[in-house]
Amino acid sequence: xxxxxLKLVLCWHMHQPWxxxxxxxxxxxxxxxxxxxxxxxxxxxxxxxxxxxxxVVNFTPVLLEQLDDYAQQLNGxxxxxxxxxxxxxxYLAGARPLPETEAGRRALFRxxxxxxxxxxxxxxxxxxxxxxxxxxxxxxxPDFDLLPYLNDQYLLDVLTWYHLAWLGHSLRxxxxxxxxxxxxxxxxxxxxxxxxxxxxxxxxxxxxxxxELAERGQVELSVTPYSHPIIPLMIDFESLRCALPESPLPAxxxxxxxxxxxxWQLEHGIDVFEQxxxxxxxxxxxxxxxxxxxxxxxxxxYGIRWTASGEGVWHGSSVLSGLEHNTPDSRRxxxxxxxxxxxxxxxxxxxDGLSDLIGFEYQGWKxxxxxxxxxxxxxxxxxxxxxxxxxxxxxxxxxRECYPDNGFHxxxxxxxRLANDLLIETTTFSDALTxxxxxxLPKLCPGSWVYGSFSTxxxxxxxxxxxDRLVEAKQAYDEVMASGKLDPExxxxxxxxxxxxxxxxxxxxxxxxxxxxxxxxxxxxxxxxLKYLYRLLGIAAPANxxxxxxxxxxxxxxxxxxxGS
Length: 565
Hints:
Structural class: alpha/beta
Largest sheet: 5 strands, parallel
Mean pLDDT: 94
Number of strands: 9
Strand content: 5-15%
């Protein structure tokens, strides 16, 4: 008799916030295109190399738009020598002269160190030797004494190597990459153009590769609301109270028109997804797994069959519902779709332990260790194993920076092992709904995958202040929209800019526990986005947007690295 196979859904969340200074401006941070070259390309390569491995890949719409924009700009440079809206690529391409001032050259060199050094710089002997006049591992800051004696070619070589270091492992054997690495230094304009051409090819081909994986049924593609906002907080700040009843709220009690804005974020996000992939998704990972009953009630209207959150939300909801939550029987319920009263959308819960092991612990482990954990769950579930699903949901970017070779060997071995395992069946969330009976969940305690609460985005002075600035901007937006003074095109641009300001990442970074450099970057960009919104509305921005909201100073929450969001 064949073994009953436990269902496993491995879901990768691909997300970057909006990094342009406004809707059309300069990219302030380079993480969209760098993660595209390193992580999104490697993830597609893994799935293409292991056709028996099924998974879910979730895309944020603002990421899709920025990937498309980068591809167009790179091709514009190659075809017509049109400068791009990204300083780092312009310097690499020669589309912008290298800085002449010592301060500008120092800033450029520092930017070329923004990577996880142990796995991305120290593993490249030529790059490490090139950096040696100014920096070596263990130095908190470069020693710039020799910088005045280093010419433009030196900085161009450092720039080239920085981009080589950010290439995914699947690109290491590409002829262009092999030639550049073999040469080591003295890169010419033609050679740097060859690297840029490869970048354009990789970034421009990403959505097509994932679409092909979806069309052959290997991958389910899902979506997040347009700009990655925390939907439950947009609807009601009080949703914080279930998990954190004593936490303070912003001075403004509500986000004006929050339900309508939440609906806009859902609808526009799905429209953008359909534009790039040619179909409407069946699943939605609400930003940061942030859920509430009010948020879930919106999903059926958009054809969303499933969403997901973290194990902490499952625990809180079990307590709120008066269900047992620390017994073997209750543990079985974790591995099942959940059905809320009068809601057609099912919710699944992330196995935090297994997800975090891959995200934060498995750098020195092996694929067999992960599979052994799954076999233990299979043994625990016994004859009912085939009616249950383990949900492993994690960051599709930063987690692998700490792995050797971008986690290429670990993930490759894991996919090979899972695709051929007799006890485990990899599947998608949509397919799991047809195979695994749902369990009833009478009440849902609002929260996210982080600690089962919203503490990462609200309830702390700096975060609450950021919400107050957003509420004030929304009030101004509503007044201008009601006045009728903007034409339809102006209204559309203002609505898009408001959406950028509603993104969750601004609030994530505010707080004393995060690194001061990252806090400064996001603080400045957030206030600049708000100022641009006021400009689109035709009114002066308030003076309080000239004041920093947060200064940081800590080591940061898990899940984000200083190297990138």
